[in-house]
Amino acid sequence: MNLSQAKVLITGGSSGIGKATAQLLLRKGAKVAICGRDPQKLQAAADELGAVALPADVSNEAQVTELVQAAVTQLGGYNVLINNAGFGLFAPLTELDPADFRRVWETNVLGAMLVAQASARHFVQEKYGNIINISSTAGSRGFAGGTAYASSKFALGGMTECWRAELRPHNIRVMQVNPSEVLTEFRERSGRDRAPENPTKLHAEDIAHAIASLLELDDRGFVTETTVWATNPRE
């Protein structure tokens, strides 16, 4: 698609991959709205970027309905969802708090479904749209301590395949990006120490570039899934 015609909603858009993607798409001429749960942080990011701030909790169905309606109104249309909101909590199975497991799934799985559902209803009416789900390499291989997070990303991959099968007849492209480790606030939000700056590891801008590339492919085709690894990461 021509990104100057893109009208984009990015969930989890106030930091990390979401914010970097908003910045790149805006630079390429798209209209962009970013969503997040913290209104002050979200507005600060929107002001910095020149994006539209749309506060919402993606796990709340009523808020999601209002979110998508607001995106359509404030962007003057809507044709791209970047389903990026998500976080991780990590613990061995024997120590995993069911409440933490539920919190991860409510955002990473239920939230992704609700925003995609409301967006798809609009895209089907318009007979056109794009959905990009931001997953993880954790969605293809589990690891010790990753029960909550990895399972949520495996589930997202399954939903992506279902939506792709359902929505292709309506000219809606459903795609997935699987980043490996990216140096963002993700580690801190999961209760771990922030990773030090490392030029050999992936940065949010790298994933933003992958997302923009998927969208820029002519609408006659699409890349179903892409995985991004650091070439030669060093500690």
From TrEMBL:
Residues 6-162 form the Ketoreductase domain. It comes from the Bacteria. SMART domains: PKS_KR (SM00822). Signal peptide: none annotated. PROSITE patterns: ADH_SHORT (PS00061). The keyword Aminoacyl-tRNA synthetase does not apply. InterPro entries: KR_dom (IPR057326), NAD(P)-bd_dom_sf (IPR036291), Sc_DH/Rdtase_CS (IPR020904), SDR_fam (IPR002347). Keywords: Oxidoreductase. One of its GO terms (molecular function) is oxidoreductase activity. PANTHER family: 5-KETO-D-GLUCONATE 5-REDUCTASE (PTHR43669), ALCOHOL DEHYDROGENASE, PUTATIVE (AFU_ORTHOLOGUE AFUA_3G03445)-RELATED (PTHR43669:SF3). Belongs to the short-chain dehydrogenases/reductases (SDR) family. This is 3-oxoacyl-[acyl-carrier protein] reductase. It comes from Catalinimonas alkaloidigena.
